[in-house]
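Fold this sequence, please.
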Amino acid sequence: MTQGRGNRLAQETSPYLIQHSRNPVDWYPWGAEALERAKNEDKPILLSVGYAACHWCHVMERESFENEEIAGIMNELFVCVKVDREERPDIDELYMKTVLMMTGRGGWPMTVFLTPQAKPFFGGTYFPPENRMGMAGFKSVLRGVAEAFRSRREDVEKSAADIGAHLHKLMGVRPEDPLLTLGIVEAAARRLLEQADPVCGGFGGAPKFPHPLELELLLRFHRRKADAAALECVRVSLEKMARGGLYDQLGGGFHRYSVDREWAVPHFEKMLYDNALLLKTYLAGYQATGEGLYLRVADETARYVLNEMSLPEGGFACSQDADSEGVEGKFFLWTAAEMRAALGAKDGALACDYFGVAESGNFEGRANVLSAPWTDEDFAKKAGLSPAQWARKRTHIRGKLLAERNRRARPGRDDKILSAWNGLMIGALAQAGRILEEPDYLDAAVRAATFLTGSLAHGKRLWRSYRAGQAKHNAYLEDYAFVTAGFLDLYEATLERRWIDEALRFNRSLLDLFWDERQGGFFFTSHDHETLIARSKSLDDGVVPSGNSVAVMNLLRLYELTLDEGFRRKAVETLRLYGGFMRDFSGAASYMICALDFHLEPPLTVVLSGRLADPKTAALRLAASAGFFPNRVVAFADSRDPQAAQLMPVLEGKSAGAEPAAFLCQNSTCSAPVRSPRVLSQRFKRANPSVRSTRS
């Protein structure tokens, strides 16, 4: 194959696969054609997994997959399969577990060698083209693996069988029936605090990821126990991340992670899921503390999503690349000279001081990652300006620098639309619109949800991915769970009946397609999905929550509205199934423990009644969002929709006449109608959870 002719990936819609369509490698997408060829020719499979925004994926492509000699070795000795991990998380999860088992480390690009029956026997992540600094070169690895497959076939088959047996063991869940108590929540929070970095925020050392799910758990724990250490950990983490290079100080939004302990230098790609989860975290931090910085960062992050990640169809793109013009971070970096050229000498010096820009640079060469180590009050004082003067000057400087940056070559954008990640962002923007009182954010969430129900849904089913007019791939548990959660958030923000209808539609599909009738809990793939070498239940809450965790939270929220005992029963069965995992591996179960926290406190349901267009109803809806009260459910008894009570029995009897009102319901008991937004807001601010030590 020559590079000019391209390969089979040119017919795909994934930007990541298309990036590799001009490689001289004879790539196949994952599918029957590649697997059949491997069996017919008795050749091992070289499986390469990555994603479009991955910096080291680009490096390995340039060094190896565009290298004619290396490509020739690959084509001669292997059937080569390229997978976009974002389109096929089932394949990624399965083979990543094997790489972690074999090497003790994972990441992307992931390189796995399989038998013709797709059973893994050797793997790793990035390989340099030649032997380098103690790392085996890709050419050596290719020849060594092919020679082992050819001359030591029995050993290879035995290794694949052993890995497969261990993989099945890992994929299973040990059924337990532990007591579901607040002790699990408290122990998890205490372990997190032991790992917390009290100086720089976050957890552990470098590299450092944001961990929004863990921060939510600590906020919940603080609310229950008034634990000062938990709140301080959240405060330090949110402030240091917002002031560091992890946060884009000009355009808003967060990069994926920091390569250092101090959040100074990021890995520059921006992921949709990170920004959705962090947007929710900063909103929660603002509700819990009233800190204005968190509100500003939430607003800027939501605005970034609308400016940079919104697509004409209505959904949101997956990611922005770390690289532009082949250089990591080039779009985001500044020299002191560039600052002065953009702003003039006086404002340039002021901006360099504020953003921590040094002549010598803090990145490669003289380039700088921007940070904002000063509070606005402290910097105004340093600059001899009033806070109001500095606020105006800061806005002016930021605007000019952003306009100058926008003239640069932009990083690539993976513009495929994933159901799961769009579900996360729909929920985040719905919450932002409600809490910030910003209709643009609500409108964007509604557009995305409308697109999703029209182009990524077919009957009761979802597709995983959409691009170039094509919806592809069966959806996974996380798709159904995250979309359901997003629609629940959208219902609470808009009070429009259609979004609870959609949430219930996809929740029913989730129960039909993924529920394990034997043990409880939910499988990663649907019952009619392609058969792979193992079928897993996703346990870990990692950079995104697991499908099981979100499904449990959805079921508990929906139970409060529908009083459907089947929802509650399945949620509790899943919590019990994972009870031992939450107890023993709490660091990998943060969001499941948040769901347990919801279960252990009788949630507070706020039923608003009146007419949707009435400004008094809107005022009550805003008051119903006051304070950090995560175990709160909001419903709406529309005077023009008397049938809604059949869908949501919690609405029964909540008509309070012509005037809008709010009812606070807990433990099957509702308050008298509250008509004053101020009184309703005060009720939340002083509400304390009524904790049950055990709840079954």
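DSSP finds 27 helices and 20 strands in the chain. The first helix runs from residue 15 to 19.
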